[in-house]
Every structure is written in C-alpha cells, then in structure tokens.
Amino acid sequence: MSETDVYGLLIDGESVPAASGKTFTTYDPATEEPLAEVARGAEADIDRAVESGREAFEKWRTTPPEERGRLLTRLATAIQNDIDRLTELEVRDNGKPLSQARADVEGCARYFEYYAGIADKIHGDTIPLTHGYTDYTIHEPLGVTGQIIPWNFPINLVGRTTAPALAAGNVAVAKPAEETSLSALEVGKLAVDVGFPSGVLNVIPGFGAEAGAALASHPDVNGISFTGSVATGRQVAKLAADNVTPTHLELGGKSPNVVFPDADLDVALDETIKAIFGTNAGQVCSAGSRLLVHKEIHDVFVDELAKRTADLSIGPGSDDPNVGPLVSADQYEKVQKYVNIGRSEVGDPIVGGDAPHRNGYFIRPTIFDNVDNGMRIAQEEIFGPVLSVIEFENDDEAIELANDVDYGLVAGIFTTDVGRAHRFARDVDAGQVYVNEWFAGGVETPFGGYKQSGIGREKGLEAIESYTQVKNVCLKIDQ
Ligand code: NAI
Ligand code: MG
Q1: pLDDT of residue 323
Q2: H or E element in which residue 110 lies
Q3: Please, what's the b/e burial string for 390-403 (b: 16 or more CB within 10 A of its CB; e: otherwise)?
Q4: Per residue in 354-387, is it b (16+ CB within 10 Å) or e — as a string?
Q5: Are 1 and 36 in contact (CB under 8 A)?
Q6: pTM for the full model?
Q7: Which domains does the chain have, with CATH numbers?
Q8: CA-to-CA distance for 121 and 167, rounded, in angstroms?
Q9: Residues within 6 Å of ligand 1 by CB
Q10: Residues 288, 272: contact at Cβ < 8 Å?
C-alpha cells in the first residue's frame, strides 16, 4: 500500500476526508492483504452529501434532458475507455475472475449508455376528460436519491442504480459496500471528469450501520434504492418509512433451476454450472441455487454435473479461473457454516465441501444431492458456490417445489417443450423467468423480486418509474 492508495469521499465534486477523519481498510480477498484505505463516511458526511445534492438538484432538473443524456453517454464512454484499470481494481477489491469483472465494467458503461437514451423521452399522457377540460400528466424526478449498494457486483450496480436516477433528473448519493468501495469512487470521479455538475453524483463509502443507516433515514432524501440481504432491506425500509421515503428493495433469492428430460442436457449442464458456480462464486442474488431435476434423468445428470464441477478451476481472480475467492472472511464463514449444516442434513456433499489450502477466501464448488426442499440448505440463501439438488416426478411437483420458498427473484427451466416452458413461466413466482439459458436478459429487461425478494423493479424502462413521480394537471378551459 502506498500513500496514493487512500480514497476520500466524493462530495460536491471533490475527494474529501470523512468529517471524523477516520478511514477503514479494504482487502484483496485472494490474498487477505490490505488493498487501500478508504474514508469512513458516517452521518455528518451523509448530511454534507445530501446538502450538496439538494443544491445540485435545482440545476440538474432544469438541465435540458438531452444535455443530461449527453453527459450520461460521455460517462459511459469514459468507463469503457478506462476498462482495463477499472477491471483490475474490481478484481483486487472483490476477488472475482478477470473476465467476469470486465463484463461488470462493460455492464456499468452499458447502463449509462442505455439510460442516456431515455433522458429526453420521459413523458406523460393526456387524459380525455369531458369537453371542458384539458388534463395531462408530468413525470417528475423525486429529488435527492440514495443508492445502498452491496459488494457482489460493485461497479455494475453503481450503473444499475444511479444511471436511471440521473437520467430522470434526480441526483444521487451512492453508498457502496464497505468490502468493495473503490470502483464506485472511480465512477464518481469519472463523472466529474466528463463534466457532471458537482453534487449530482456523490459517493460516500462507509459501514452500513453508520453511512447506510444515515442515508436511509435522512429526512431530505426522496428515494432509496437498496440491494442486499432481506434482513438489512427490512431495516432500511423501516428507517425510510419514518420519512415516508419511497424505497425500492432488491433482496435475495433461492431460485429454482428446473431440468426436464426433454431438455438439451449438455446445455442444461453448462448453464447449471454458470448459474451457481461460474458467476461470482455463487455470490449472486439470482444464482440458481436449487437444482430441481426430473427423476428420470436425475442420476445421469447429477453424475455428469459432479464431474464437470470437480473440473472447475479455482484461484485468484487475476488468473481468470472459473471460480475466485469469496469476498470476505465473513462470507467465507457463512458459507462454511452452511456446508456444515448441509452435512448434518443430508451427509457429505457429492463434490467439494472443502476449502483449498491457501490464503484467500476460497471454497470449492459444492453439491449436496438428495436434498429435501424443506431443509435449510434448500430454503436459506447461502450466497456462495453451494448447490442443493432436489428430485421431482412431474410438472405439478416441479412448480410446487419451485414456489415453496419465501423468495421469488428468478426461476429457470430447461425443456424443449414450448407449452411446458410457458406453463412454468405462468405459474412460477418470480420476477424473471429464464428458458434454456440462465441469466437470460440484459440491461433492457426489468429485474426484481416477488415475495421476500423485493419491491420495485430495476433495469429496463421500469426503473424510470421507480425514479419518477407523476403529477396530474387539470385545467378547466370552458368558461
Ligand atoms: P447487507 O445487506 O447487510 O449489505 C448490503 C449493503 O447494505 C451494504 O452497502 C451495507 O453497508 C449496507 N447496510 C448494512 N446494514 C445497513 C443498515 N443498517 N442500514 C443501511 N444500510 C446498511 O449484506 P451483507 O451483510 O454484506 O451480506 C450478508 C448476506 O446478504 C449475504 O450472505 C447474502 O445472502 C445477502 N446479500 C444479498 C445481495 C443481493 O444482491 N441480493 C448482495 C449482498 C448480500
Ligand atoms: Mg476488498
């Protein structure tokens, strides 16, 4: 670590220390070595950022929408141009494999590009009241919005949460996760470099109970977007409720990946691996963490899955393996705890279950077979490379099992029977349904949870609704 590896808060276009003068250390999870010192934002800093945002909002909301769009495009280009540096930083701070981090940086740029195009197309309706009236609606920004971001897709989620906010004329105060603050600060600096007015995008790293809670409970914040655990989401919503601040929650999942005998099994195997092991070591809210496999193919499918899983490479993100380390010691311990719970519930895993002997928070991809859907490893979000396999006999049982959890984020089905795929899509409780490809969709497709997986939608045009409020104007025009 050198003198230059001290990151300030980004308030009003300037990198500044925390009011308390405190910093915290961010670590490289592949080596457990310190990576940088980061200013430890707390209530006083959130106050400053919100105040700066409030001032900037008056200017930003009246900036011509096409000009806002152009700035978002410039930011997208700047992120894309800086992709090598940002990717390397993300790999070191989060641990994820290089090619996955690169895709996340591209995704971040793509969010700014996508929402740039909508900045000048957010319009209302005219409503045909009786002859004597003219009635129309306007979609106005909320004002100062707060984005509380988790550590699993740090830079990608900065784009996902702030780009629609800014496009719609809001200003943003982003609070990255304490495990992974660096890339959000870099995006904020690039926004300043490309000409965003100061205060439009503030970035306040810090701990959840300090900076996060201060943002969620701030009386002058007009909208909160939170991504993370259900428990913290509930707390954030309660804090925001005191000020009747609209809150939009992207929480966890225990998503069913359902494989039928009529599927292309080779594709289903690859996608199953991508769904739970090959993407961010399973630390994904939309991971396919429950494999529901038809009885007729159970043995052959699970045997081959175990073989392919055992062949996955595991190592530091900089080597671009299939599976990198988990993000932190806490997450490593949480996943280890669930592996032990799995052992007590169903016995030894058919593959994995151990941690390679080296520094860093590595856990080998792990599969528990013959899991009962009522077990904890089938009901609770593990958020790591651990898959629970559950057998089913027919379509009705598949949908029953798929829906028998508190979550409802995504669901996937592998089948070549079109009717079966559509029936599943109709009957499953999930905000996104994947057919024959896991993580199908993109920046353009609305994303969010049923049941305890969340409230509201991000991505796509739906995100703009979360960041605007409707004003109806009614004129009596007849004398
Ligand atoms: P978390 O939900 O506590 O943290 C997410 C964000 O919320 C971070 O920025 C954190 O600083 C902030 N935060 C924490 N406490 C807060 C509070 N009281 N008020 C306001 N903000 C607060 O998640 P954590 O502890 O990092 O991970 C625990 C589990 O959460 C994981 O094992 C996983 O199951 C789940 N999770 C789900 C994610 C998702 O994408 N749905 C992302 C990260 C974690
Ligand atoms: Mg780190």
Answers
A1: 98
A2: helix 98-116
A3: bbbeebebbbebbb
A4: ebeeeebbbbbbbbbbebebebebbebbbbbbbb
A5: yes
A6: 0.97
A7: 6-251+454-472 (3.40.605.10), 256-444 (3.40.309.10)
A8: 10
A9: 148-152, 175, 177-178, 207-209, 212-213, 216, 227-229, 232, 235-236, 250-252, 285, 331, 334, 381, 383
A10: yes
Is residue 221 a contact partner of residue 212, using CB atoms and an 8 Å limit? no
C-alpha 59 to ligand 2 mean position (Å): 35
From the list 250, 271, 381, 391, the catalytic residue is 250
pLDDT tens for 126-155 read: 999 988 999 999 999 999 999 999 999 999
Q: Which residue ranges of the chain lie beneath pLDDT 70?
A: 1-4
Residue closest to 253 by CA, chosen among 2, 396, 428: 428
* Annotated catalytic residue 285: yes
Q: Ligand 2: distance of its center to the CA of 92 in Å?
A: 7
Ligand with smallest separation from the Cα of 286: 1
* Dist. CA 389 → ligand 1 center (Å): 26
Total residue length of the chain? 479
**Dihedrals phi, psi of 375, to nearest 5 degrees:** -70, 160
Angle, in degrees to the nearest 10, between helices 154-167 and 65-81 = 160
Residue 366 near residue 386 (C-beta atoms within 8 A):
yes
378-403 pLDDT tens trace: 999 999 999 999 999 999 999 999 99
Which ligand 1 atom is nearest residue 251's CA?
Answer: 41
Give Cα 45 distance to the centre of its chain.
24
Say how many Å lie between the CA of residue 216 and the centre of ligand 2.
23
Task: Extract the tokens encoding 331.
Answer: 């997450």
Distance of CA 260 to the CA centre of its chain: 29
- Convert the pLDDT of each residue in 400-418 to its tens digit: 999 999 999 999 999 999 9
Of all protein residues, the one whose alpha carbon is nearest to atom 21 of ligand 1 is: 212
Q: Check if 437 is active-site.
A: no
